[in-house]
Give the backbone structure.
Amino acid sequence: MRRGRAPGKVLLLGEHSVVYGHPALAASIPRHVTVELLPAGETRIELPGGIQTPFPLREAAVAMAREAGFEGAFHARLQSEIPLGSGLGSSAAFGVALARAFKPGCSPDEAAALAMRIERVLHGAPSGVDPMACAREGVIFFIRGEPPRVEAVRGAAWIAVALTGIARGTHSTVLPLAERRKADARIDPLLARLGELARKGRQLFERGDLPGLGATFDDAHAGLRELGVSCAELEETVAALRKAGALGAKLTGAGGGGAAIGLARDEAHAREMAAETGGFAVEVGG
Ligand code: PMV
């Protein structure tokens, strides 16, 4: 049996705008997806909780196996410490873990590129930031492209991650936004502003300016709400993080459900916020 493993991720800044060529700041989180790979008579992907595997996902995994040089049919069994569909990178981590199982010793960038096969099936038109964050680990500054521009970002911060409990696919907000963008001239300037916040956030993160970084989280959340990708449950979750003393809080990932993050002063504060919002505390970077 072979095994592949990869962490989940949060988008600190730049979700959605990264799809349109603006930068994003993303971080891996110490919650992992593991894939066990066994030779089998017939290819099968076993998702947790008995979830049915969509046919295109199986096809994408087969195509990835061939690209990675793995011959024959297989049984891939996925275990996840990340709730699926929560915006915390379960699908990207699955793709990276599967790539590592097919091709042990492959580089992080190669694993991220292989994982794009899964991302395209599950996400429609992904920027590639999710698998890159899961594969590289730590905090990255990312601009999409062929190849993407990826820089490791120094620094560390504690955050609380709070879940709305609403699972959703990234399709559900990314594709409608692409449609709205065609008819609404206010969207492009908003996307550019979110990209600027990611650039600024990177500098503040590297300097360890937590109040400044918190303010960029708040500004980014306001921009994402204006883009129409928040929802009542995310607004409640962000408000709860702020009430718990977050230096700044925002939705993370595609929105429409999923998760929100709150920036903490330190580890103890992150744990307090997590306890008050039913979430969990993690250090990003470091
Ligand atoms: O799938 P999520 O919730 O991790 O969102 C990914 C970030 C987006 O910018 C919304 C999509 C993308 O591919 O960059």
Summary: The first strand starts at residue 2 and ends at 13.
